[in-house]
UniProtKB/TrEMBL annotation:
Signal sequence region: none
Lineage: Bacteria, Bacillati, Bacillota, Clostridia, Lachnospirales
Positions bearing the site annotation: Important for catalytic activity: H141
Similarity annotation: Belongs to the 3-hydroxyacyl-CoA dehydrogenase family.
Name of the protein in its database record: 3-hydroxybutyryl-CoA dehydrogenase
Molecular function terms, GO-annotated: NAD+ binding; oxidoreductase activity, acting on the CH-OH group of donors, NAD or NADP as acceptor
Amino acid sequence: MKIKNVAVLGCGTMGNQIAIQSALCGYRVTNYDLNQDMIRKAETFTRDWFTSRIKKGKMDEEEAVKAQGRLVFTDSLEKTAAGTDLVIEAVPDILAVKRQVLSETDQYTPEHTIYASNSSYIVSSLFADSVKRPEKVANFHFFNPALVMQLVEIVRGPHVSDETVDTLMEFAASINKTPVLVKKEIYGFVVNRIFSAITKEACYLLDQDVASAEDIDTAVKKGLNHPLGPLELLDMTGIDLEYHVLMEHYRMTGEFADKPSAAIVEHFAKGEYGRKTGKGFYRYEDGSRRL
């Protein structure tokens, strides 16, 4: 099928950037959120991002105006879903939330609509039955920041049709992303399974006072040649996101080993989520890290 109209559910950082990327590549996009404050922030970020691109000479004004003209923001789910070919869900990684949002959206979408979930960990078979056509629901995982990172993971769950997979692979390429196909469902897919193993051990070393956050990150960067240390990366992606993801997994498994580390819990409880709050494992001022 041919994708023309895209609906992105969620005006947070990921949803907004996915919406911008899709509009840049010629699609008509509606970015939805119930929260008016989130919509205002997304609109502001969008204007500022395009203005910055123009000032840096990376985009001409005509191109920017056309792209912004293809992107609208709304708090109307019916307006968002009606006539859309592809719904990209970018709501919090909480199973109950995803099920509710998809079920409500499915009341208004055409029969041909494909549902793509940007979930970082939760496999789509756990919420595909929230819509009338489960074969059209698949994981479609972008990476943060979505305007920069090239990878998209597409997961072939047992319920997903070949047409859905093929369409999503083509769509990912059309918005200048590199898709990889995960041939079977597994918690965390490929990248986050590897990332989780590293961050879990880094947090354990920090909890046990084996080394400081800075030294743990330095060891990984200099010893494994990673561009960012695992704790720096958690600050960038959001400690709150990591906390919610781990708690959701713990609720599903009941395994004590799946609970967030003491360091994650402490920072989450204090509202220290990383760069977006100015403090996490490190302090930040004007976007720069301070020890």
